[in-house]
Amino acid sequence: MPPLPTTSLNRSVRDRNAGALLRLLLREPMGRKELARRTGISLTTMTRLTAALLEAGVLEELPTRTIAGRGKGRPEIPLGIAPRGRLAVGVQIRGDRVTAAAYGLSGLRCAAAETPHHGSSPEQAVASAIGLAKELIDKVGPERVAGVGVSTGGVVDFESGTLLSSPQLGWSDVPLREPLAQALGLRVVMDTSVRSLAVSRLWSDPTAPDSMLVVFVAGIVTSALVLDRQLHRGRSATAGTVAHTPVADGPGQPCSCGAVDCLEVLASDRAVQRVAVREGWLPADSSWDDIYAGESQAARDGLARLRRDRAELLGRSVGRIADFLDPQETIVAGRLGTAAEARLCLDAVGANRPVRHWPVTDEDWDRGAASLLIDDYLTRPTCYEATLSI
């Protein structure tokens, strides 16, 4: 059958069909007929799509197997994601360093690298990110790399790839995606770090619920919302901005927004450290790790009380947000203190609500950044695979 002429409608249909079969194959290998049955795609179209993806090296044919339950059994050639197929490079821009890692579509980590910032300007950070990404791409093979996902803290406009604001980095209105795309010659997708965690959960776990709230606490407090297995970014890219959620019965702590007792000035790591320094339990140049120390018993007791108070306050606030949004799962991500303090936070969210703690490791951040690209790849595969556009 001759190929259809490429139109925006045809491309949209191919994206939907190819994305559906790839998502199924990420869960388990299966043959063309089973793929057609599960997706509702005609066998003719399925054959054409899988042929294009086999030609591109994205899929591979596996040893023939017999399908049970069909008379005497009929042999079928299963298809699977090629282990040496497409890769996504994830880059995370942090306050003190840039990290990068390459992942296959099935989640296998192939390579990783990191470099410290050589200064604090956006230009220096972008230069570090470009150099690190190039190093990693050369290492794994440029022909295998589909594109690059970039994550960072703050507020990111997904459509333009602009970092609108970042309290951690002290930047505002910084275009990041375009210089990276131009230097690397690849498709680049960019979003906030907490959103990358939410997308990573959807990509890496097929049992992930259709809706979830991920609240991340560190130097800031922010969140990501997934609805119908789609990340909700909002009209102005600020969906999930919970830093200025008011906290009832607070101490009257002023916030930069002009209000008092916002969640971030009471529950962030910086808020806890500020109180610890004010009370004399920590020196002014302390780091977050010092919050577990204390030179005297009185200081250690005071710091433990601070951590417990923060855990309960954060849990109550997350519970109110979850009550309003009613997600199937609520995740509190970040370092919450000791195991007992983390449990205290989750209990404060509410016993009748599915909630869990995600400590978040360095690898989680890298995987999250890569997942932004993989999510885009699975949504619009024709933008990445030329064989699908023929």
**pLDDT < 50 stretches:** 1-5
- Looking at CATH, the homologous superfamily of the largest domain is ATPase, nucleotide binding domain
Average pLDDT score? 90
Query: Into which percentage range does the β-strand content fall?
Result: 15-25%
Rg, rounded, reads: 23 Å
Can you count the beta strands? 17
Instruction: Write the H/E string, N to C.
Output: HHHEEEEEEEHEEEEHEHEEEHHHEHEH
Percent helix: 25-40%
CATH architecture of the largest domain: 2-Layer Sandwich
- How do the strands line up in the largest sheet? 7-6-5-8-12
Class inferred from helices and paired strands: alpha/beta
Oligomer: single chain
The first-level CATH class name of the largest domain = Alpha Beta
Question: What count of domains describes the coordinates?
Answer: 3
Q: Remind me, CATH topology of the largest domain? A: Nucleotidyltransferase, domain 5
Terminus-to-terminus distance: 12 Å
- Provide a count of the helices: 11
Shape: globular
Main sheet specs: 5 strands, mixed
Report on this model:
By secondary structure, the chain is an alpha/beta fold. Helix content is 39%, strand content 22%. It folds into 3 domains: 75 residues, Arc Repressor Mutant, subunit A, CATH 1.10.10.10; 133 residues, 2-Layer Sandwich (Nucleotidyltransferase, domain 5); 151 residues, 2-Layer Sandwich (Nucleotidyltransferase, domain 5). Helix 2 packs across helix 3, helix 4 runs parallel beside helix 5 and helix 9 packs parallel to helix 10. The longest helix is centred in the last third of the chain and has 29 residues. The chain is globular. The two termini are 12 Å apart.
